[in-house]
Design brief:
Largest sheet of chain A: 9 strands, mixed
Mean pLDDT of chain B: 91
Number of strands of chain A: 9
Structural class of chain A: alpha+beta
Shape of chain B: flat
Number of helices of chain A: 8
Helix content of chain B: 40-55%
Mean pLDDT of chain A: 94
Shape of chain A: globular
Radius of gyration of chain B: 36 Å
Order of helices and strands of chain A: HEHEEHEEEEEEHHHHH
Strand content of chain B: 5-15%
Distance between the termini of chain B: 53 Å
Radius of gyration of chain A: 20 Å
Strand content of chain A: 15-25%
Low-confidence stretches of chain B: none
Helix content of chain A: 25-40%
Oligomer: heterodimer
Number of strands of chain B: 18
Largest interface: A-B, 39 and 47 residues
């Protein structure tokens, strides 16, 4: 085991190295606003179809309703998830996962690590799976899921998905009580930076915008636009008239579904969605996600015969 | 007589499913063995987070051979039929026997099934059990198609006797049965090979796994109680949590920790709920009831005796409680200012899309509580105020986070808002009773709001035709009806339900429909009442006999009547009176049908001849004189006793007097006398409904 990480980025790097050594393709974050690492097409879309797949990546995630102006020691509207997805799920996935905890300095001989039932469901993605939340000394440090269905499609083979809440995990490993106090880079660096140095101001700015300033009419219009564009993309004929090739545009359509999902989250944070409407909006996003999944399984990456 | 040991070793099985899964494994395997002809002496199922296990003792080594004589077509039937029969029976045509039957010569197939070895049968039964296991939720993993609760890794399936142990050959989707398992994930990594159940349980214990859930639970409870006691504290009993925690550990290690001072002022229910729901901690309290510490149960032993684990748990708890405190303090600000923003916010919360928002609901409850209040001894204005704020806490942050604290938080916040105690109490108590063992409210204001809430709910769902059907009762309407019944009866309230259930309906556009749905709902109440009273030993036919009487929407009155009747029927006089009544009623009904008249003129004593006849006249006079005022005073016991007194005179009458006398005058007078028996008894209850 290498030296115990001393900073937030040290933990990220340790995870990157560990999963790279296990043979995962280390991808970069998806360049869109998402609520969780699962939304990255490397998970949502690649969990579909029969092709084998193994990827790991950091995903910046946004949950507007969780904003606390940087004051709450644990809650942020923008945070990082570390995501691992392997298809088919290997028989030793639990052992591999425990190895990753060891790699970031959580020694199973000293800590109490438990797999506690927590079935995962994403109504917006039309997805569900069975698994656990992993507890370390009573704290949830990861979500561990065997995908059973995504976008309304049965997963076969089944993907194993690991999601680490990086801030919480790092705070625990680094023994920090407030997220903003956590060392972002090595505290011995010439210019040591804390998490607060990097993110306190943005937490305040976004909290204000998310809760009070974002223009709801504009957001609503953007939601409708994304919904319409998604449908329009998927209506295009499979064969591109310009190149004469079959190009199903599953990813561009899925981008619009991601957009719609995030816009819904923003509208929710602005408090303009009633309980009854909520279900309807979630249903609309799910319809988009399912349509994208339907399109993706017709592509080569989705396992369709060439 | 071999013994069988099965273990299904998997990734972590959800705690809530373990106990039933152990039972299911035992049931499915033993049923399968018995069905295949293998009897056994005893069996027991076990579960830990990572394994289901089954021990079957004293199994037959092989099933007995079975011989079946199967009857086929007649001799001379078409050849096709004969060959078809032979094929179906699995014997050659030459092997068919010809036997004589009543109808002539018939083919018989003699099918011999040899006995099968236990191993063969066990393999077959275990595979069928695995493939059809009734998990509440199951999953696939990897590239396979087998379903299990979580990935299944290994199977032990061994038969052992004096000669030794043998693995039952079995391969399910690539998982081969063997004699190997693993102990504790962290404390005893590595493979264990076992030879039978005793060896298995002992080796598991050495490998830091307690196989029995009861043993784990007892260890946890004993150790936690002792540690709390040593600090002069007391562990708060929580059996549900104990069972769950016992399903989360293979090697329980109890750790007692302190709650940060900063959070000790939170309401104890908030502390307990937060610790229980999120952290699965037990609460530990002082003698005064104040919760000050917690117990967490780890699944491992460490070199630092759990210090790191406890510190981590304490830290997580502090973060949780910091959240709870944040909610509590935010909520207190709203509460102290009068809670108006919460009341306004109820407008945006849908109660049911056909029944409007929570705010609409509150409006209806308020109106209804005002009406009910004077009948239950509550001040109408106070009850209305209590109804108005009863749902305010649904908008609070604490209830959003912990829905199970609804009502309780309402009470705290109403108190903070300066509401009178009766109003604050109603915010909590109007939900009661939540289950058959839950106490009913007794404070008048709470009673008024509790009844208003439940009656409105029932009337509302009845009006939109969302009634419970079969096992489906998504809005818990049976519970609501039972709640009304218990609140009314246990508080001895006199309420005419019909007045409220037809008035509470939000859709009064169609008076006729409202009335019908009111009567339908009343009969739903009566059905629930029958179930409720059955548990108290009052038969349904007794209630039916009382339902026919006026005022059956007054449940207290109805039950008083039913109890009195039930008690009367338990006496010798009462039981015989029923026979007498039925005899009188039968004779009368037949005569009325035959003669085409109704004998209700009133019998005249001057035509009475026999002493028994005269005696019956005076007995009826006496009974009626007692029954009328007693019924007026709703003193059913006295009325029923007076009725039961008729037993002797009626019996004597039937013994000594012939109703169908030769004299038409005498006959008519006697039929009219029977009619008096009937009408007198029917004033008390419809005895014709009584069975037997």
């Amino acid at each position: 085991m290498s030296e115990k990480p001393r900073s937030f980025q040290g933990i990220i790097l340790a995870l990157q190295n560990y999963w790279a050594a296990q043979g995962c393709a280390v991808l970069q974050p998806y360049d869109m606003e998402v609520g969780a690492g699962t939304f990255h097409p490397a998970t949502t879309l690649r969990a579909l179809g029969s092709n084998a797949w193994a990827a790991a990546y950091v995903q910046p995630s946004r949950r507007p309703t969780d904003g606390r102006y940087g004051e709450n020691p644990n809650r942020l509207q923008h945070y990082y998830q570390y995501q691992v997805i392997i298809k088919p799920s290997p028989p030793d996935l639990q052992a591999l996962y425990l190895g990753s905890l060891q790699a970031i300095g959580i020694d199973a001989a000293l800590h109490d690590i438990r797999f506690v039932e927590d079935d995962w469901e994403s109504p917006t993605l039309g997805a569900w799976g069975l698994g656990w939340e992993v507890w370390c000394d009573g704290m949830e440090v990861s979500q561990f899921t065997y995908f059973q269905q995504v976008g309304g499609h049965d997963c076969h083979p089944v993907s194993g998905e690991l999601t680490y809440g990086l801030e919480r995990l790092a705070m625990y490993v680094l023994n920090v009580d407030h997220v903003m106090d956590m060392p972002f880079n090595d505290p011995q660096s010439p210019i040591p930076l804390s998490y607060g140095d990097v993110f306190l101001q943005t937490e305040q700015e976004y909290a204000r915008w998310n809760f009070d300033t974002a223009d709801t009419d504009t957001l609503l219009q953007h939601f409708k636009d994304a919904e319409a564009e998604c449908a329009r993309i998927l209506e295009q004929p499979a064969v591109d008239p310009k190149t004469g090739k079959t190009i199903i545009m599953a990813h561009p359509a899925y981008d619009q579904a991601i957009k719609a999902s995030h816009l819904f989250n923003l509208l929710d944070a602005r408090g303009v969605i009633s309980v009854t409407e909520r279900q309807a909006y979630i249903g609309r996003v799910r319809t988009l996600a399912k349509a994208c999944a339907d399109a993706f399984v017709k592509t080569a990456a989705g396992g369709a015969a060439a | 007589m071999p013994d069988l040991l099965i273990e299904l070793f998997s990734e972590e099985i959800p705690a809530r499913m373990q106990s039933k899964a152990a039972d299911d494994l035992k049931r499915l395997v033993t049923d399968g063995l018995v069905a295949a002809g293998l009897t056994y002496a005893g069996a027991a199922g076990f579960a830990t987070p990572r394994r289901l296990a089954l021990s079957v003792e004293g199994l037959l080594a092989e099933s007995k051979p079975v011989r079946e004589d199967r009857k086929g077509p007649k001799v001379g039937a078409p050849a096709q039929a004969v060959t078809g029969f032979a094929r179906g029976a699995g014997v050659a045509v030459d092997a068919l026997e010809v036997r004589s039957d009543k109808k002539g010569e018939v083919y018989f197939a003699v099918i011999e099934k040899p006995g099968r070895s236990a191993a063969e049968i066990v393999a077959e039964v275990l595979e069928a059990t695995l493939r059809n296991f009734p998990w509440p939720k199951s999953m696939r993993w990897g590239s396979g198609s087998l379903r299990w609760v979580r990935p299944l890794h290994a199977i032990i399936c061994i038969l052992s006797d004096e000669a030794g142990a043998a693995v039952v050959p079995l391969d399910i989707d690539g998982i081969k049965a063997g004699a190997d398992t693993q102990g504790h994930r962290f404390l005893s990594p590595g493979v264990i090979t076992v030879t039978g159940f005793e060896d298995y349980e002992a080796k598991l214990k050495r490998a830091h796994v307690y196989l029995r859930a009861t043993e784990r639970a007892e260890l946890i409870w004993a150790d936690a109680s002792n540690q709390a006691f040593a600090q002069g504290l007391e562990l708060v009993e929580d059996r549900g949590l104990l069972a769950e925690v016992a399903g989360l550990v293979e090697w329980p290690v109890v750790l007692l920790g302190k709650i940060d001072e900063a959070y000790l002022d939170l309401p104890p229910e908030v502390l307990q709920t937060s610790m229980r729901e999120h952290q699965k901690f037990f609460s530990v309290r002082e003698k005064s009831g104040r919760i000050v510490q917690f117990v967490t149960v780890a699944n491992t032993e460490t070199a630092d005796h759990g210090a790191t684990i406890l510190a981590g748990n304490q830290k997580v708890l502090s973060a949780r409680l910091a959240d709870a405190k944040f909610f509590w303090e935010n909520d207190l600000r709203v509460a102290k200012a009068g809670m108006q923003p919460w009341l306004d916010a109820l407008e945006n919360v849908t109660f049911h899309n056909k029944l409007g928002s929570q705010r609409d609901l509150v409006g209806r409850i308020e109106a209804l509580a005002r009406e009910i209040a004077p009948l239950v001894g509550a001040d109408a204005d106070v009850a209305a105020q209590a109804a108005r704020i009863a749902k305010a806490d649904l908008s609070s942050e604490m209830v959003y986070e912990f829905p199970e604290l609804q009502g309780l938080m309402g009470r705290y916040y109403a108190t903070e808002a300066g509401q009178p105690d009766a109003v604050a109490a109603a915010a909590q108590e109007h939900y009661a009773p939540l289950g058959p063992s839950d106490d009913v409210p007794t404070a008048p204001v709470s009673v008024a709001v509790s009844l208003a809430e439940k009656i409105d709910k029932l009337a509302g769902f009845w009006a939109i035709d969302e009634k419970p059907t079969g096992s489906k009762d998504p809005f818990a309407l049976r519970r609501a009806a039972l709640g009304v019944i218990r609140v009314v009866l246990e508080n001895d309230l006199s309420l005419k339900l019909l007045q409220f259930i037809s008035g509470a309906s939000p859709r009064d556009d169609d008076a006729g429909q409202t009335q019908n749905s009111g009567l339908d709902l009343l009969s739903f109440f009566h059905d629930r009442l029958k179930v409720y009273l059955k548990d108290q030993g009052i038969r349904h036919d007794v209630i039916d006999a009382c339902l026919a009487m006026p005022g059956s929407d007054d449940l207290t009155l109805l039950v008083k009547r039913a109890r009195a009747l039930s008690e009367t029927l338990q006496t010798d006089d009462g039981q015989n009176l029923i026979q007498g009544f039925k005899r009188a009623n039968n004779i009368l009904t037949q005569a009325e049908a035959k003669d085409g008249v109704e004998y209700s003129y009133g019998a005249d004593v001057k035509f009475a001849e026999a002493p028994a006849e005269k005696a019956l006249f005076s007995a009826l006079d006496a009974a009626e004189a007692k029954i009328a005022p007693a019924m007026e005073a709703e003193d059913f016991t006295t009325a029923m006793a007076a009725m039961a007194d008729l037993r002797g005179p009626i019996d004597a009458f039937f013994t000594d007097v012939q109703v169908n006398a030769d004299s038409e005058i005498l006959r008519r007078n006697r039929l009219n006398l029977l009619s008096r028996i009937r009408s007198t008894c029917l004033r008390v209850a419809d005895l014709a409904q009584i069975e037997g």
